[in-house]
Write a structure and sequence with these properties.
Strand order of the largest sheet of chain B: 3-2-1-4-5-6-7
Largest sheet of chain A: none
Shape of chain A: elongated
Number of strands of chain B: 7
Largest interface: A-B, 26 and 36 residues
Radius of gyration of chain B: 28 Å
Low-confidence stretches of chain B: 220-302, 314-366, 639-646
Radius of gyration of chain A: 16 Å
Largest sheet of chain B: 7 strands, antiparallel
Structural class of chain A: mainly alpha
Distance between the termini of chain A: 46 Å
Number of helices of chain B: 24
Structural class of chain B: alpha+beta
Helix content of chain A: over 70%
Mean pLDDT of chain B: 76
Order of helices and strands of chain A: HHH
Number of helices of chain A: 3
Low-confidence stretches of chain A: none
Helix content of chain B: 55-70%
Mean pLDDT of chain A: 92
Oligomer: heterodimer
């Protein structure tokens, strides 16, 4: 029982961390990809990111907390980050 | 999944807001006051209270400039408007290089022309700056903290909407006297009534802080930061800002430190901030042939001929104003008319009365020659103002004159307010006249260079309420008050819900103490700040800082008090102190200002009277809370239920 509670707290902390840090990283790469897809100049991309980033981040955090399982949520965030960053680098992007 | 999403959103709503709720409360409260920061600064500078703008204020300005700077390269006049009651003057001396720092500047009594030696005060600027840069924390770190808190607020708002089963029905529900239910209803009403405002102000706040939050973009916070920094100076900025718009914007940030420390920057005013000034500098540069960019220039404006016709009509004494152009404009035109007809007393003649004792490195002979030359030049500023007002359908209070008192003089005017939300960064048009009153250049309202830029600019202008007239400003203020109620009631709701089960738990007691100091304590600190402004000696060194220290000392004492006595008596004591201080604030005002209540009403000083009225409304609200607490204190204390379990929302595996 104690172990389950402790595990639950660890997983909850992991979900919070994944939402905060993983969500931030995923929002960054989504903004970069959107900017590239829309063929924005650097200046336009900065303006675009300054608005869209927060909306993407918000949606990701809410999605993260709407998933039933902690493990699925954390794993989902890690995989999504891996895939989307891979796509970004495959397209020749760089930070 | 049945009910799971709502439950998980409740958890997210609770914890995303709770961890920063006291900071959010402070940001909301001080940010709400920032909508009236000029008015607060006016209240906190009683030396300004005697200044009553009149129809002769423009004459006063010109006479003063003729007297102190007859050979200046340029003059700048900031006339009193609906948010300032003093006259701001500045000038760039003959032969002086255009520098980053402003030239000499003065703040004058708009009625008498006497220089105002206002006390050193942090004014409304401290509260404004605190709401996004906190205090005594490195700027970038502070902005990052505030930005993170704002993001959490954004998450809390949206998750709060999702978690509501019937948000519309809840809005019309109020259950007084039901303890927890009453607080829930107050929280919902505060949230839903101004929900669009809360979303707008939070999202636009994030956009303004994007430079620090999106650090991976690198050096991106010049935009928002520069603009915000531009508002830092107290008072009004002179229109010319040497160095052009870039320097103006940079200076917005650079002068922030000066404005924070106060003293020397005081008279300076800042309707429109550095970007305003920067834009003006651009215009002046254009006039002087120094403008390398010429952004927004419309030298060959199609309507120029028509405008000149209007201007000349005004000078010839015909009525140039369109129907409904306003009484003020008509008065000005009327005076221009008189001047045009040779009634020498009425026209503003910037060339009149050049004085040989004026400053400048020239010898006496040279001065006399120049004075003779300058005596011949007259500028009919009122006619120009009337033309500009007709053009923009709003008055202009910013006048910049290059090469004053010479035949080459040029006068540049800008309107008082922005009229479009999609304006570019330098979002105010301008109009330049030659010495004869002909329009020689007109710059249109600069539009943003892209849809994205326009959108971003719109959010920025919305957040800062730069476009707002007095009615919209008050609407923003009341929405901000509702936001403050939303955050404050949310903080209390957390405690009240858990009081029976968790009283005595360390975490609960910590939150209770922080709630008390963060909500009631902040009101005590705010009232102390205003009291300190009037009670600290006027000549005190570092007076501005002393006011701020008083604010934090009071807040710190409240925190200590809350740590010791955080239950009902604690609320009763702190709320009572805050209520009494706000109640007596107008009394203190009329006792320590050179102008009493009758004088303020007679002089139409609504900037000051509104402050006093808001103080009384605040006192009324706090008194209601005190009475509520007294009623609660009379009820028997409920003990902690030993067998109770924590009632915090749980987010367990598989529950969402």
């Amino acid at each position: 029982m104690v172990m389950t509670l402790a595990m639950d707290k660890v997983l909850l902390s992991g979900r919070v961390l994944a939402a905060a840090v993983g969500g931030y990283a995923l929002s960054v790469v989504i903004c970069l990809l959107l900017g590239q897809a829309m063929e924005l100049t650097d200046r336009e991309a900065q303006t675009f990111n300054s608005m869209v980033f927060f909306l993407v981040y918000l949606v990701l955090v809410i999605v993260m907390f709407s998933i039933a399982s902690h493990k699925k949520a954390i794993l989902g965030m890690i995989i999504a980050n891996g895939v989307v960053w891979e796509i970004w680098y495959a397209l020749g992007g760089a930070l | 999944m049945k009910g799971g999403l709502r439950k998980s959103m409740t958890w997210l709503h609770t914890w995303s807001s709770l961890i920063v709720i006291w900071l959010l409360f402070a940001i909301f409260l001080t940010g709400t006051t920032a909508f009236f920061k000029d008015e607060i600064t006016h209240w906190m500078t009683p030396e300004q209270h005697a200044s009553v703008p009149s129809e002769h204020t423009l004459d006063v300005a010109v006479e003063r400039l003729q007297s102190v700077a007859p050979f200046a390269q340029s003059w700048s006049i900031n006339l009193p408007d609906d948010r300032s009651r003093t006259l701001g003057l500045s000038w760039l001396g003959e032969g002086e290089e255009q520098q980053r720092r402003r030239g000499p500047r003065e703040e004058l009594d708009a009625g008498t022309g006497q220089p105002i030696e206002g006390r050193e005060t942090a004014g409304g600027d401290f509260l404004y700056r605190f709401h996004f840069e906190l205090w005594a924390i490195p700027r970038d770190i502070a902005r990052t903290i505030v930005g993170a808190a704002t993001m959490l607020m954004f998450i809390a708002i949206i998750s709060g909407i999702i978690m509501h089963r019937k948000i519309f029905a809840d809005f019309f529900t109020f259950r007084p006297g039901k303890k927890t239910a009453s607080w829930v209803d107050a929280h919902v009403v505060g949230s839903v009534l101004a929900l669009p405002f809360h979303i707008m102000i939070t999202f636009s706040g994030l956009i303004l802080l994007a430079g620090t939050l999106l650090f991976w973009q690198g050096g991106g916070h010049g935009g928002g930061g520069g603009g915000q920094g531009g508002q830092g100076g107290q008072g009004r900025a002179p229109m010319e800002q040497p160095g052009g718009p870039q320097a103006g914007a940079e200076r917005g940030g650079a002068e922030r430190g000066g404005a924070e420390r106060g003293g020397a920057e005081r008279g300076g005013a800042e309707r429109g901030g550095a970007e305003h000034g920067g834009q003006m500098a651009m215009r002046e540069g254009a006039v002087n042939g120094q403008n390398p960019e010429g952004r927004g220039k419309q030298g060959g404006h199609a309507d120029m001929a028509a405008l000149n016709e209007v201007a000349s009509t005004g000078r010839q004494g015909r009525q140039p104003m369109a129907d409904g152009a306003g009484e003020r404009g008509q008065q000005r035109v009327g005076r221009g008319e008189a001047a045009g007809n040779g009634a020498s007393g009425d026209g503003i003649r910037a060339g009149r009365g050049a004085r040989a004792e004026g400053e400048g490195p020239r010898g006496e002979r040279g001065q006399r020659r120049q004075a003779v030359q300058r005596e011949a030049v007259e500028l009919d500023l009122r006619a120009m103002l009337a033309v500009a007002e007709q053009r923009w359908q709003q008055p202009s209070y910013n006048i910049s004159i290059s090469k004053p008192m010479t035949e080459d003089a040029q006068v540049t005017l800008q309107p008082a307010h922005r009229t479009k939300l999609n304006n570019g960064k330098w979002g105010v048009p301008s109009m330049t006249f030659d010495a004869s009153g002909n329009v020689v250049e007109e710059t249109a309202t600069p539009e943003a260079d892209s849809v994205l830029g326009a959108l971003r600019g719109m959010f920025k202008i919305l957040h800062e309420a730069k476009f707002a007239d007095i009615f919209v400003r008050w609407m923003f203020f009341f929405s901000g008050v509702l936001g403050t109620v939303m955050v404050g009631s949310g903080a209390l709701l957390w405690s009240i819900k858990r009081e029976r089960q968790q009283a005595g738990n360390k975490g609960f007691e910590l939150v209770s103490a922080l709630n008390l100091a963060g909500v009631a304590g902040l009101f005590v600190a705010l009232a102390t700040y205003f009291w300190a402004n009037r009670l600290l000696p006027v000549e005190m060194a570092e007076r501005r800082d002393a006011e701020i220290y008083c604010f934090f000392a009071a807040w710190g004492l409240c925190l200590l008090h809350a740590a010791v006595l955080r239950q009902k008596q604690g609320w009763l004591i702190q709320l009572s102190i805050a209520a009494a201080m706000f109640l007596l604030l107008p009394v203190l005002d009329f006792m320590t200002s050179p102008v009493g209540f009758i004088g303020a009403v007679g002089g139409g000083d609504w900037m000051r009277l509104s402050f006093d009225l808001v103080a009384w409304f605040t006192a009324a609200g706090l008194t209601t809370a005190v009475l509520h607490q007294r009623k609660k204190a009379k009820q028997p204390q409920r003990g902690k239920r030993k067998d109770s379990k924590p009632a915090k929302p749980q987010l367990k595996e598989g529950q969402a």
